[in-house]
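Treating backbone geometry as a discrete language has practical consequences that deserve illustration. Part of our work consisted of pairing the sequence of a single chain with a tokenised description of its backbone. What the numbers capture is local backbone geometry rather than side-chain detail. For completeness, the protein is quoted in full, as a sequence line and a line of structure tokens:
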Amino acid sequence: MKFAVFASGSGSNFQAIADAIKSGLLPGQLKLLICDRPGAFVLERANQAGIPSLLVDPKSYETKAEYEQFILSHLRKRDIQFVVLAGYMRLIGDTLLKEFEGRMINIHPSLLPSFAGKDAIGQALQYGVKVTGVTVHFVDQGMDTGPIIAQVPIFIEENETRESLTEKIHKTEHQLLIKVIGWLIQGRIRLNGRLVKIMDDEELKEAFK
């Protein structure tokens, strides 16, 4: 399956995906990186990995619809079948949502619905929770509100710092995101309303009979 990654920052999740494909751990084809921020390090990561990238500055478009329509035209050219948001700091609008309904996922550094939005790591530390984590979910119209596919908890130690927690979360993100992308490629994920089911091998065989 052909997919694209959207990212806005340093791109450590993008790197993890690219490395997993290169090593044969992930069978999909990462065909395109979409980035909305000039100078983001993820663009250099894509260049080094030999993956085409498209820098699209939303300030160059009068409306969000025009911005997304331009992106959509490039996704269609490459026959993109699903989209992975990996540190993409922008809400997805109707233009892309309609095209990729049920085929767009996002990774978030908390156990949603807790600590949605920006700086989820800082929110968790400030609130004083003992457990946070990582969530991969389908994208809908809201901010981190789509149906949850998978979650992994991470315990916050008494002497935890932002740096140490960030490191633990990034490590977990890389592992979980690759696993979920693999499920998508294998056709294991079924969405029914807000409920997401991951089919085991026997269920998968029955579904594709």
